[in-house]
Write the structure tokens for this entry.
Amino acid sequence: QLVESGGGLVQPGGSLRLSCAASGSSIRPYAMAWYRQAPGEQRDLVAIITSRGSTNYADSVKGRFTVSRDDAKNTVYLQMNNLKPEDTAVYYCKATYAQIYWGKGTLVTVSS
């Protein structure tokens, strides 16, 4: 099970840190990813971190977002800085290994 938290309302230029807490099994062998889905849009990849710690980002968030993982805490994070209104979306956590798991999402709203 994956549970996202940390979403909320933030002004443009602000920061948020999302967390994705896993239960039931260790995330250690999993590639972990963050996706987001804006209203009326498809779900898009934001950032991914492999089991070895390699990362990759969507062009739209490079330099502003940072994905990290703490396998001891069974948690993945997404640090989001310099947020823009176009970052408004529901953010989902995904775990991929032998199976694929999704969280239910957390809403991020960037607005003044």
Remarks:
- The mean pLDDT is 96.
- The two ends are 34 Å apart (CA to CA).
- The CA atoms of residues 89 and 100 lie 22 Å apart.
- The chain is about 0% helix and 55% strand.
